[in-house]
Write a structure and sequence with these properties.
The protein contains four helices and ten strands. The chain is 26% helix and 27% strand. It has two domains: 97 residues, Hypothetical protein yqbg; 79 residues, no CATH class.
């Protein structure tokens, strides 16, 4: 199974501080740092649960020698914007770049797909081949409204409940409505429970 590594994270968030401040009906900026951290936490939670990067970021997907074959590999980070390069360690353990004509990519699937046309001579090692790609929505305006609404609900919950809260026999968890809003945006290849 491929390993994923974040190379370059997003430079902006799907929601601005002002948008969240208005949603929370805050009268001043005394908690700006805290609210800003909640925006990042909510984005990361949504990305972890859906395997869907919300704002453009660069990732690497690595394969061990034993995993390399002519099968179709799924890139579980939709939407996929582009593949920058495919690198590999040759038989002498020297890093090489595979020509773009030696692989094909389907950026439209969810998840996206990748397939080697010709397999190069590889060193028998872990992380023998790496796919370097950019994924996520190009800007905040492109992020679907249901995802943003789920983030608002998560942020509101985290703002009001700054620690795990038990009232009687009820535990207040992340709002169920955010789960429903995110359900249709989950990567189709991921079967793990949502939140």
């Amino acid at each position: 199974m491929a390993n994923y590594r974040l190379v370059t994270g997003p430079t902006t968030e799907p929601l601005t501080y002002t948008e969240v401040k208005n949603f929370l009906r805050l009268n001043d900026d005394s908690e700006q740092a805290f609210v800003t951290s909640l925006i990042t936490a909510a984005r990361q939670l949504v990305e972890d649960r859906t395997w869907r990067p919300l704002i453009s970021q660069i990732w690497a997907m690595q394969f061990d020698y034993e995993e390399i074959n002519y099968s179709i590999f799924y890139i579980n980070k939709s939407p996929l914007l582009s593949v920058q390069s495919v690198t590999y360690f040759d038989e002498n353990d020297v890093l090489q770049t595979l020509a773009a004509s030696q692989y094909e990519v389907d950026i439209y699937g969810s998840p996206a797909r990748f397939r080697l046309i010709n397999i190069p001579e590889l060193k028998k090692r872990m992380n023998a081949l790496q796919v370097n790609f950019t994924c996520g929505y190009t800007n905040a305006a492109s992020v679907p409204l249901p995802i943003k609404q789920a983030m608002y609900l998560i942020i509101g919950h985290l703002y009001e409940n700054r620690q795990d809260v038990v009232t009687g026999t009820q535990v207040h968890e992340i709002p169920d409505s955010s789960k429903y809003l995110l359900e249709s945006y989950r990567n189709n290849f991921i079967f793990a429970p949502l939140i």
